# Entry
Amino acid sequence: MQRAKDILLRWLPLIVLCVLIFVFSSFSADDSSEQSGGIVDLIIKEFFPDFHEASLPQQAALTDLLTVLVRKSAHFSEYALLEWLAFSAFHRIKMYLLRWGLAVLFAFVYACTDEFHQTFVAGRAGLFHDVLVDTSGALLGALIACFISVFYAAHRIIKERSAADN
# Structure
């Protein structure tokens, strides 16, 4: 029973995120642009109060820059989370370096399949530089996951030694 619960708690979030990435990648280019455009509009409203006083080329340049930053940040962060969830799901692999590598490889392969999937969606294109952004996010997720794992292991060792000393 505990093993089933453990599997569910470790694998279900990874599967859910994979499905969410697939769903968002299924949106047409117009729908995807509308989503990121809404976020860009919020950023402009909040951080650039003089936006409408700028020239049209300046407004377009800022909007384009923020759109790229929002879209790439979304790629980066969702794949950092994907790698972290894969790292957790692969918890039975006790060699951290292998576990880390397999989780990054999983994120890379999923990024490749996601970009391939986008070639079938209206107005979308599979872009290798998005795979690189995704994989960079996965590498950051891996570093965070490794840091947390090492910190947790060190904390556990210190706690055990302290209990043994008492």
